[in-house]
Every structure is written in structure tokens, then in C-alpha cells.
Amino acid sequence: MPLRPALGDVSPYRPQKPIRQLQEELGLDRIVKLASNEGAFGPLPAAVAAFEATAGELNRYPDGGGTMLREALAERHGVALEQVVLGNGADELIRFCAHAVLDPGERAAFPWPSFPSYVAAVTVANAEAVRVPLLEGLQPDIEALAASGAKLLYLANPNNPTGQVADFTALVGDGRLVVLDEAYAEFADPEPDGIGLIRAGAPNLAVLRTFSKVYGLAALRIGYAVASPDIADALDRVRPIFNANQPAQEAALASLHEQHAVGGRIEHVRGAREQIRTALTDAGLDARPSQANFVYAEVPGGDGPALARALLQEGVAIRALDGFGAPQAVRVTVGTDEENGAFAQALARVAGREGG
């Protein structure tokens, strides 16, 4: 087959089996899903109404420019319309950045462990993915990133899967493209403001945001980048036409006007993640403070997948982090109060068996 050799180094996304199928196989009436960093709550009522209103026009192509949503986002962030680029989730924008910047054989770097999509985006672009190990305390090694010789840097802030926020300003302004992936920024206290650096004139910075988390629109796949006009123009050149579907655009636009409800969701996450961390610590795991909607914890004995399998048998799905470069750890997403309680009880049962 005439396939590109670089694809041999790309690990395809391996989704978990559908929840209903897992329930049948395991003989469970219910599985609490805390594995995918989805929002604990569903779409906002205004988003549902906007989504439903598009049903009669599904025979029409979406607005290829995403004009109304981009105008609202530009106003929200105090930037020009041409500085906003829509994506089919932030994940697509990660790939746009690689395709816009990297020529074959060039380097892109990122802290590690971190989001595996960076590896895939760089490798598919036929470039070299440079994983820079985190320092003690799970902070990125800024000096090593700066010295990596990379033309492109990906920096999740807060980092997925560790949940830490870091200061990346030392990397801004040196000529390479710095991509700040702020998918979880709303949950941090204080909230990172990479877009503020763009408003201040940073020429080599792109900031990614998403509606998948706090807005509860993960199934619609809608995200956006804010960048300097030159960087945004480059991203638009590699963007497929109609990449953001119309129901997603309309639901996202309606969600922007529901900031009071969004604020309540943020407060829920900030309190609940500490409760999850306490449950993990009580079970003997090394759970780290988080600024995102999940908690990272290292497992005694270093076998994260084993703990994830044991919890799945108890009806709770969490994320083993071997695919993120941390096989010794797991990640638990914040759910509703009831779901978080079910997780804590299941974890206590598993820890009790292992301890005995």
C-alpha cells in the first residue's frame, strides 16, 4: 500500500467501547463516566433551543466563515474578527497549527506527559515530536522547551492530564509559534489570559479555547483559536471549508450569553475537584492539586491501567494515562455530586480489597 511511512509512528485514537456495550459485557446497570473530561452537566437550555432551531435547514451548508459566532467571540475577547478561527473542536485546531508551520523534518516540542493529540498532529505533518519531561511538581521545563530547537511549541494551560497552570510568557516573542491550549482555562483560579498577550501584540502566539467542557457541547465539536492576524490567516489557509457545522455554531453562540449559569458550573468544578482529590488521597494515591475539571493521581505500585480496570468492574470509568506518557497514573473527571460520590465509594471498595 502506498501509505506514508510517518503514519507508522501515529497511534490512532482508541475509544472506549460504548457505555451500553460495556454495561452489557460487565453485567452492570450503570457506568459512571468520569474518563473523558466532559462537562458534568448537559448543554445550556439556550443552546438546546438554538440547536433544535437548525433542524429544518440541515440540507444547507453551514456558514463557512462562522461569521456571527466569530463576531461574538471577537467582541468577547477584544480582538478583531480576522483574529478568530473556528475549529471542529480544539483538537482540529491543534492540527491546523502543525500544518501551517511545520515542514517535513522540522521540530515541534511540548511538555510530557501532556495531550497525545500534539504527538499525532506533529507526526502526521512529517515532523519530529520532541517530548520535554515535566519537572518535579509537574511543572513544564521552560528552559528545555526554549532550547529544544523547535519551530512550534504546544503548551496546555492547565495541562492535561496533570491539571497544572504555568507561566509561559518567557517563550513568547522569540519567533517560533507558541500554541497555548486553554481548553480548561475557565476552571482555573485565576483564569489564564493568553488572549491578553495577543491583545498586547504578541506576534507568534495562538490561543485555543473550546465549548466542549464548561459549555457542555462536546458532541458538537466546536472550538476556536485567537491569534495575531498573520497567524490566524495561516490557520485559515489550512482550514477545510465548512469545518464547523451550523448546529454547533448556533449552540455555541447561544451559550455565550449564559454566563451566570456558566459561572455556577465553574464553582461546582472548583469545589468538587477537591473532594475527588480527598477521596484519592484517602485511598492511598498521590493526588495532585488541579486547576482543571479533573484530578491527576499516581497509583501505589505504578499501575494506572489496573486501577482503571478495577474501577470499571465497580461501574466507574476513569482514564488510565499510559497513552499520555504516565502509565503510573490515572485521571478522574469531575462529575455531578452524585457521580462523584459513586466514584468515592467505588474507589474505597477497590482500595479496601487491595489493602487487605
Please explain how this structure is put together.
- With 356 residues, the chain is of the alpha/beta class.
- It folds into two domains: 13-42 and 259-355, Aspartate Aminotransferase, domain 1 (Alpha-Beta Complex), CATH 3.90.1150.10; 45-255, Type I PLP-dependent aspartate aminotransferase-like (Major domain) (Aspartate Aminotransferase, domain 2).
- Helices cover 37% and strands 15% of the residues.
- Strands 2-8-7-6-5-3-4 form a seven-stranded mixed beta sheet, sandwiched between helices. A four-stranded antiparallel beta sheet has the order 9-10-13-12, covered by helices on one side. The protein has a two-stranded parallel ribbon with strand order 1-11.
- Helix 4 (89-101) crosses helix 8 (229-238) and helix 10 runs parallel beside helix 12 (337-355).
- The termini are far apart.
Question: In a nutshell, what does this entry contain?
Answer:
With 356 residues, the chain is α/β, with parallel strands linked by helices.
Characteristics of this structure?
alpha/beta, Aspartate Aminotransferase, domain 2, 2 domains, seven-stranded mixed beta sheet, four-stranded antiparallel beta sheet, 12 helices
Instruction: Flag low-confidence runs.
Output: none
Total helices: the number is 12
Radius of gyration: 20 Å
Look up the CATH topology of the largest domain. Aspartate Aminotransferase, domain 2
Choose one word for the global shape. globular
Strand arrangement in the largest pleated sheet: 2-8-7-6-5-3-4
Task: Specify the CATH architecture of the largest domain.
Answer: 3-Layer(aba) Sandwich
Proportion of strand residues: 15-25%
Q: Count every beta strand, where a strand is a DSSP E run of 2 or more residues.
A: 13
Describe the main β-sheet briefly: 7 strands, mixed
Taken together, the total number of domains comes to 2
Report the top-level CATH class of the largest domain.
Alpha Beta
Structural class: alpha/beta
Rounded to the nearest angstrom, the distance between the terminal CA atoms is: 53 Å
Order of helices and strands: HEHHEHEHEHEEHEEHHHEEHEEEH
Mean pLDDT metric: 95
CATH H-tier superfamily of the largest domain: Type I PLP-dependent aspartate aminotransferase-like (Major domain)
Approximate helicity band: 25-40%
